[in-house]
Amino acid sequence: MFGLDWDTTDLQRFRRDLDELFSGVSGTVHSFPPVNVWSSENDAVVTAELPGVESGEIDISVHNDALTLRGARKPVELKENETFYRSERAQGEFSRTLKMPFRIDAEKVSATFNRGVLSIMVPRAEADKPRKITVKAA
């Protein structure tokens, strides 16, 4: 119709180029670190990708139903006469607060860091756990 004969590879390249062109303009915010969160009746698990961050540079805090991750990723130090050809990885300080679907038992939160992935076990506060009520016959 328009004289365009693009194959799938051309369309993928075109879409990638458009995404790059409009990144940051469309209002889309890419949060760092990227996380996955899943929950059960008693707890939640949060995993965060933190490549290039040392475990000692990560701060985790809890308040009521919110979990906050803070830290920093140090900038890459280039040698003399080196310049970036492309730089897409964020550097510097970050902070991310995640609201959990329940109040957190801050005393029992635990975290491990393995191969750039932070895993946080977030237990539900006892007072916030659902309770089964037994109905007594009158």
CATH topology of the domain at 34-127: Immunoglobulin-like
How many extended strands? 7
Mean pLDDT: 84
Order of helices and strands: HEEEEEEE
Note the overall shape: elongated
Instruction: Give the helix/strand class.
Output: mainly beta
How helix-rich are the residues, as a percent range? 10-25%
Give a written overview of the molecule:
The protein has one helix at residues 8-22; strands at 35-39, 43-49, 59-63, 66-73, 92-99, 110-114, 117-123. By secondary structure, the chain is mainly beta. The protein has a domain at 34-127: Immunoglobulin-like, CATH 2.60.40. A four-stranded antiparallel beta sheet has the order 1-2-7-6, with no helix packed on it. A three-stranded antiparallel beta sheet has the order 3-4-5, with no helix packed on it. A hairpin with a 3-residue loop joins strand 1 (35-39) and strand 2. It is elongated, with a radius of gyration of 22 Å.
